[in-house]
Amino acid sequence: MSSTVHAILGRAIVLASTAVLTLSLLPVSAADSVDELADLSLRAWSGEPELLSEVYAPDAVHTATFYDRTTEYTGPDEIAWVAGYGGIEPLGPRIDIPAVDGEWRWASFGSLGGGTACLFHAVDGLLVRHDCIVPERSVDSRPKVGLADAEASAAIDDLAARLNDAWGRGTTVEKLAAVYAPDAVHTARHPGRTQSYTGPQEILSVAGFGSVNPIGDRVDFEAPEGELAWASAADVGGGSVCVFRAVDGMVTRHDCVLPVR
Predict the structure, then answer these.
(1) CA distance 144 to 88
(2) How far apart are CA 113 and CA 143, in angstroms?
(3) In the CATH hierarchy, which top-level class contains the domain 150-257?
(4) 124-147 pLDDT, tens per residue?
């Protein structure tokens, strides 16, 4: 190879390396709207993991809370490990939650784990938190589900209304025992910890704080015979999501994610 050709190739390699380095140092472009960010997030989790750095802030946190534990991932690189599994299938509409200027909050629901719910928080066009409830143990693998049929939704209408009436100031163990099974579990996942309550007596300690006001529409999931499953968003803690499961007309699990400590 002549010295001239060698020099040209050498300059080309240097220029190419500089270009790659320059791209890696460019600031991450933030989304211009919640619609754009939600779409990018769905694509990143459905086979385009290269988009994760356009979706999540460098110190963003994604958690998945199962019945037995919470898994946590920080930053796009760690989140890529779980996002690589893909297969996110949304069920029902996105629910936008009121937020201060410069921030976006929303809830969405999916088919994984028998029906999941996730709470999203974005600042300046990038996600800073993405917290999900997966209603199974971490070693389980429930099949994906679709939406419930009309008969199941009608049964959920009745149970959800009675459950909502049982929460609020002045409630009693008797009111709660009319909707919760004796060994029902209610959990509240806050950033950093999960609080758990078993049975109507323990659930009373939190159910009496005040009424729960829904945000947006409830999403009803398919469930095995004799069971009901649904999820909803509410105004608790500035915007939370809960996943419910019932057996023989009684709530057996009531798991929530709240954005406040």
Answers:
(1) 10
(2) 6
(3) alpha beta
(4) 999 999 999 999 999 998 999 999
Cα 253 from Cα 184, distance rounded (Å) = 6
Which amino acid appears at position 45 of this protein? W
Residue whose tokens read 């719910």: 117
Structure confidence at residue 28 as a pLDDT band (50, 70, 90): low
Taking the alpha carbons at both ends of the chain, their separation in whole angstroms is 66
Contact by Cβ (8 Å): 139, 67: no
Assess whether pLDDT exceeds 80 at residue 48.
yes
Q: Which residue has the tokens 């890696």?
A: 24
> What does the domain layout of the chain look like in residue ranges?
34-133, 150-257
Pairwise CA distance, residues 111 & 87, whole Å? 9
The beta strands (E) that lie in 156-249 are given as: 180-190, 193-198, 214-221, 227-234, 240-247
Which class would CATH give 34-133?
alpha beta
